Amino acid sequence: MNSSLAIFAVLAIALAVAQQPEDSTVLAAGGAGRPSNGGGGGGGGGPVNLEQRTVDQQNQLLATSFARAFPEDTPAEFQPMVVALYVRCQAELDNCADFLWETHLLREYRNCAMTQRRLCTQEMQELQAQLLAMADTNNELFELSPEEQEVLSQLGY
């Protein structure tokens, strides 16, 4: 189980790292192509840093909420569903970030990111309920009838 969660963590980090170079080139191109947004040579760095920090914070909040919702003891057979949901949610946040890189409208980005995180939270809750129902069903399948328990006790188990 821990190896599955380690894979999940590596996947999350890989997504974040893979996003960084792309964002850096977009930021560099956006900064060079929009001198009016920078207001000058030194003023362009401030908004870009704030934008990047805001995007990083939203991505971290998403990762943290997943870590809380799906702890290390989440059964390995459910990990693909958790990872698929995480990837979908991260992609939606990335779409919000793309909007930010193109427009530099930080308030609108925050609204977009917050809305996406709310939707992901709802989906996480639904997935948790599904996983709980599946686990309950699996537990019921493994419960022994009184006759089966008697046979096992006679065999010494």
Describe this structure in words.
By secondary structure, the protein is mostly helical. The chain has one domain. The protein is built from six helices and no strands. The protein has helices at 2-33, 35-38, 45-69, 79-103, 106-141, 146-155. Helix 1 (2-33) packs parallel to helix 4, helix 3 (45-69) packs parallel to helix 5 (106-141) and helix 4 (79-103) packs antiparallel against helix 5. It starts with a helix and ends with a helix.
Write a concise keyword list for the protein shown above.
mainly alpha; signal
Q: Rounded to an integer, what's the Rg over CA atoms?
A: 23 Å
Work out the helix count: 6
Residues in helices, as a percent range:
over 70%
CA-CA gap between termini = 27 Å
Main β sheet profile: none
Compute the average pLDDT: 76
Summarize it.
With 157 residues, the protein is mostly helical.
Write the layout of secondary structure elements.
Blueprint: H1 2-33, H2 35-38, H3 45-69, H4 79-103, H5 106-141, H6 146-155
Helix pairs in contact: 1-3, 1-4, 3-4, 3-5, 4-5
